[in-house]
Specification:
Blueprint: E1 17-31, E2 36-37, E3 41-42, E4 46-64, E5 73-78, E6 81-82, H1 87-97, E7 107-115, H2 126-144, H3 150-164, E8 176-179, E9 193-195, E10 208-212, H4 223-228, H5 236-256, H6 259-278, H7 289-305, E11 310-313, E12 319-323, H8 328-339, E13 348-352, E14 358-359
Parallel strand pairs: 5-7
Antiparallel strand pairs: 1-4, 1-14, 2-3, 4-7, 4-8, 5-6, 8-9, 10-12, 10-13, 11-12
The chain binds (3R)-3-hydroxy-3-methyl-5-(phosphonooxy)pentanoic acid.
Length: 361
């Protein structure tokens, strides 16, 4: 599919008003996306687990405008309060997507959202936030054009979400989602995320993720700045090639249930992401001392208990702990007793793999 396939007709018959509500999750990358080119295209393919408990619920209310020629009209309400500070981000998002959803110019919107995870917890809300708005906009497109297929509906939702925030395109559909064209992943594309379609070994079903909130502050480096640092980075070319290779390896690992190799790949990807930031100009250390304490503890626990626990990181200090469901009880105890002291206000969130966006009726 090409970009042109996602252009909605500009002559759809408009309905007067209505609303739609969608719940979409966050996701955690196993092979990381870091580095992009215009318009929000990834320099390398990535794969993520879709989460379940960390999600955004968005209601999009729409009303046909009197003056169709005027600019976008929308109001943003976040957790019950009007948020003019979110306006520029959504304005930019609408500018990027208007060519594909021209009907957005014809409506006045109220975009009302809430997150399941606490505000400024350091958990990236852009993936769940942007995917939720995208699902709502696609629902509106479907109301205007009921002939669109389910496949198109989800692909275009992911395509729109990508234009809001790259990794958001992996928060639409499927337990494991690949974004970025890759020879081993059928149907994969730089334009949208696709559900990982191979048979996944039982050990990787219902995988668990506990997010340890080490640092709930503002991100030290925004992901826009971070992606930009890959331009001219001395190791960028090798890193992009390595990620391509790691997708092939990960595919194999997921099919075979090779959990030891999974651990090596996932942890190496996390540390590589941070290594890229430590070696960029300017350079950054996004881990905190407690991030390293937690990693050491995880390694000791794994060795002592013959466990399959492992960690991954986003572009920040928080740690995602990944483990098979059979180990859930023991690892919850380990987290409470030995790791919670390294979290801000002893705060962590238990999550697990989920299926993606859901309409709330
Ligand atoms: O979607 P963005 O632009 O916020 O980038 C996210 C990048 C990482 O979370 C660090 C990695 C990934 O693949 O999700």
């Amino acid at each position: 599919m090409t970009t042109e396939n996602f252009i909605a007709s500009s002559s759809l018959a408009l309905i007067t008003s209505g609303s739609t509500t969608w719940k979409t999750p966050s996701n955690i990358a196993l092979v990381k996306y870091w580095g992009k080119r215009d318009p929000q295209l990834p320099e390398n393919p990535s794969i993520s687990f879709t989460l379940n408990n960390c999600h955004t619920i968005t209601t999009l209310s729409f009303e046909k405008k009197e003056n169709l020629a005027s600019d976008f009209e929308f109001k943003i309400v976040f957790e019950g309060e009007e948020k003019p500070s979110f306006q520029p981000k959504i304005q930019k998002f609408f500018e990027r997507i208007v060519a594909y959803v021209p009907f957005i110019k014809a409506y006045k919107f109220v975009i009302s959202s809430e997150n399941s995870f606490p505000h400024s917890s350091g958990i990236a809300s852009s993936a769940s936030g942007m995917s939720a708005i995208s699902m709502c906009l696609m629902q509106l497109e479907k109301m205007l054009d009921p002939s669109i297929t389910e496949e198109y509906f989800y692909k275009k939702a992911s395509f729109l979400a990508r234009l809001g925030s790259g990794s958001a395109c992996r928060s639409i559909k499927g337990e494991l989602v690949v974004w970025g064209a890759h020879k081993d992943i059928e149907g994969s594309s730089d334009l949208f995320g696709v559900p990982f379609s191979s048979e996944v070994a039982p050990i990787f079903k219902n995988y668990q993720d506990t997010v340890l909130l080490v640092d709930k502050g503002e991100k030290q480096v925004s992901s826009t700045v971070g992606h930009d640092l890959m331009h001219g980075h001395p190791y960028a070319k090798n890193r992009f090639a390595q990620a391509v290779d790691n997708i092939s390896k990960m595919k194999n690992v997921l099919e075979k249930g090779a959990v030891k190799e999974f651990i090596e790949l996932v942890e190496s990807e996390a540390l590589t992401l941070h290594a890229m930031m430590m070696t960029s100009q300017p350079y950054f250390i996004l881990m905190k001392p407690n991030t390293l304490e937690i990693i050491q503890k995880i390694w000791s626990y794994r060795a002592a208990n013959n466990s399959n626990i492992c960690f991954t990181l986003d572009a920040g200090a928080n740690v995602h702990i990944l483990y098979p469901k059979v180990e859930k009880e023991a690892i919850h105890r380990f987290i409470e007793e030995e790791l919670s002291v390294y979290c801000q206000n002893a705060h962590y969130i238990h999550d697990e793999v989920g299926e993606g966006a859901q309409e709330i009726k």
